[in-house]
Every structure is written in structure tokens, then in C-alpha cells.
Amino acid sequence: MSEIKTIGVLTSGGDAPGMNAAVRAVVRTGIYYGFKVLGIRKGYEGLLNGDMEEMTLRSVGDIIHRGGTILQTARSAEFNTEAGVKKAISIAKVFGIDALIVIGGDGSYRGARDLSNLGLTTMCIPGTIDNDIASTEYTIGFDTALNTVQDAIDKIRDTAYSHERCSVLEVMGRRAGYIALNVAISGGAEAAILPEKEFDIDRDIIKPIIEGRNRGKKHYLVIIAEGVGGAVEIAKYIEEKTDIKTRATILGHIQRGGSPTVYDRVMASRMGAHAVQLLKDGFRNRVVSLQNGAITDFEINEALSMKKSIDEKMVELNKILAL
Ligand code: ATP
Questions:
Q1: Which atom of ligand 1 is nearest to the CA of 130?
Q2: Closest residue (by CA) to atom 10 of ligand 1?
Q3: Which residue has the least CA distance to atom 11 on ligand 1?
Q4: Which ligand 1 atom sits nearest the alpha carbon of residue 109?
Q5: Mean of the per-residue pLDDT values of the chain
Q6: Beta carbons of 88 and 44 less than 8 angstroms apart
Q7: Residue 104: CB within 6 Å of ligand 1?
Q8: Residue 2 pLDDT > 90, yes or no?
């Protein structure tokens, strides 16, 4: 197995708070162990364009607290083809990259797998606010996004209470309902509509609202996951059926930004360092993961074959606490 001297690092897919802390950990741990580290801008797109420069201990100073990613990110259509992957391999060779560390979601993992199949060593670090990567219990950015949504819920609750209104809040998560379910519990929502669970609007939204009103509730919160969508139409339907003034809010990209929480900074630091240590110890083509609170790793193909499901106990808990 050829020795690894130069590591490339990139962030890919949607940005997530804590990606900078992960980049910082990769660069500093890498330099600590004697690797040369190249920072690649704009994900796989930047790799294809050779858009990269050597990182130093100082180039990652003053970034741990910043949201977004200093390396920027992209979704590259060109890379997502056989020719694109081959081109990426040849550009990596031009720059002497022996191993690539990819910080991103499962789409980015698939790109890394394609590169590893053609001989480039890759390591993946889970970075997405959605927490939807099957091989890990946690993805960098999730905690910060939850706290951003919770802050919005608290504000919306103040005005919903004052006007005795119903608020319908659509939150991010792509095809997964992890953000929606967690903020439904932390925000005390009457209903959470998740892509993982089939739903009936009368049974799952209208009935709990009317029952809540009968028990004396004065305001209501309904969380809709992005993977279900339709917050505006659902709000209209609630108003028509219940005569309760109902407003929809689609939180959008505000959920991606902001300074990462302590949890995200520490997790990103641990995961970033772990990826480099794996390379130092001679491992190849693995993904970093959190399992039962410990940082561990899986072979990339094994990781991509895993499935993740929503926690039924949490779904049940939300229903009980909404009473
Ligand atoms: P997020 O969960 O935040 O959206 P992601 O990594 O899943 O992050 P994607 O847009 O799915 O985001 O993927 C990022 C990039 O990875 C894509 O632009 C593409 O270049 C590459 N990619 C995505 N899917 C694949 C695939 N099936 N095979 C190879 N490369 C892929």
C-alpha cells in the first residue's frame, strides 16, 4: 500500500454549522502527524477545477465559531458521471493527493465511494443538518439546526399565544424527519408530520387540535417536515376546519446558518481528528461514525448499505406529551 503524504479535504452537499470545526481538526491533526493538507474549494466541483491550496495551522485560525464552510461547498453535476469521477482522479494525481477527506452527506459519501473504487483513498465525515446518514447516530450541524429551530418556535409561540392562533411550521430535513421529530418534542407541538409515517390530516392534525381546544388549549403548534411539505395548504385546511386563525411559517435556510453549538464543535473536532488518525494508522476508505456515544468507523460500502429509521419511541412520546 502506497504511503500517504498529502491529504485533500473538501466540504460537499449542503453546508452545515460545524463543518469549519471539522476542517480545522483535519488540518491541524494532519499537520501534527506530518501530512501536507490541501484545502479544496467548492466540493467535488473544486476538485475537478483544481481549485485548491495548501492549508497551514494559521489558515484554520478563527474559524471554529463560524457557520457555513470556509472551503465553500457545491453540488456538482459533472462529478456525478463516470467521466467526471475519472477526471477527478486525474486532477488529484496532478496535485499529488494521496487521500481525500470528504465532509458531507450521503450523496457526498457516494461520490467518495466512486473515487475509492478507482483507487483514490477516501475518508468521509458526516456533515449535514439533517442527521439522515444511516451509518452514524449523529451528523455535524444537527444540534445547531435544532437549536435554531427551537429559537424560532419560542418566538412564534409568543405571538401564537397572544393571538390564540395555530402555527404551522415547516422545518428542513430533506427526506428525513429527525429535525421535525426532535423540535416537536422540544417545542411541545400538538402534531408532527414526518415523511417516515403515513398521515391523515383529520386524524393526525385536526383531531388533536380540537381535543386540545376542548381541554382548554389556547394556541397550537404543528410541525411539518420538509419531506412532507405543504405547510401553507395545511394551515388553510386547519383554519377552514376549526375556525382557529392559522399561520404557516417555512423556516428555510435560516436553519443552515449560525455559529455552531458546543456539541457540534466538539463532535466535529473529534470526527475530523479521527479521520486523519485512520489514515495515519493505515486504514483506507472508511466513514467516521458515532455509535453509542463513541467515535468509530465503517468501511464505506458497508456504511452505504445501512438503513436508518425513525425512533418509534420518540414518535409515541411526542403524541403522549402533546395531550
Ligand atoms: P446534504 O445531505 O446536506 O444534502 P449530500 O452530500 O447528501 O449533503 P448531495 O447533493 O446529495 O448532498 O451530494 C453532494 C455531491 O456529491 C453531488 O453534487 C455529487 O457531485 C456527489 N454525489 C451525489 N450523489 C452521488 C452518487 N449517487 N454518486 C456519485 N456522486 C454523487
A1: 2
A2: 13
A3: 107
A4: 6
A5: 96
A6: yes
A7: yes
A8: no
Kindly tell me if the per-residue pLDDT of 1 is higher than 70: no
Question: Taking Cα atoms as reference points, which of 56, 52, 122, 43 lies closest to residue 84?
Answer: 43
**Cα-Cα-Cα-Cα dihedral of 185, 191, 192, 193, to 10°?**
170
pTM of the shown model: 0.96
Distance in Å, CA 14 to ligand 1 centroid:
9
Atom of ligand 1 nearest to the CA of 104: 6
- Cell reading at 122: 477516501
pLDDT in tens, 260-276: 999 999 999 999 999 99
What pLDDT sits at residue 188?
A: 94
The catalytic site residues sit at 130
Count of C-beta atoms within a 10 Å radius of residue 170: 24
What distance lies between CA 65 and its chain's CA centroid? 17
Query: Which of 12, 108, 115, 129 best tests ligand 1's pocket when mutated (most atoms within 8 Å of CB)?
Result: 108
Using a 6 Å cutoff on CB, does residue 105 contact ligand 1?
yes
- Alpha-carbon distance values, 205 to 62, 118, 181, 211 (Å): 46, 50, 15, 10
Strand partners, 171: 225
pLDDT of residue 322: 87
The residue contributing the CA closest to ligand 1 atom 30 is 111
- Residue 115: closest CA among 150, 89, 94, 84: 89
Q: What is the pLDDT of residues 230-289, one digit of tens each?
A: 999 999 999 999 999 999 999 999 999 999 999 999 999 999 999 999 999 999 999 999
Strands 294-299 and 286-291, bridge-based pairing: antiparallel
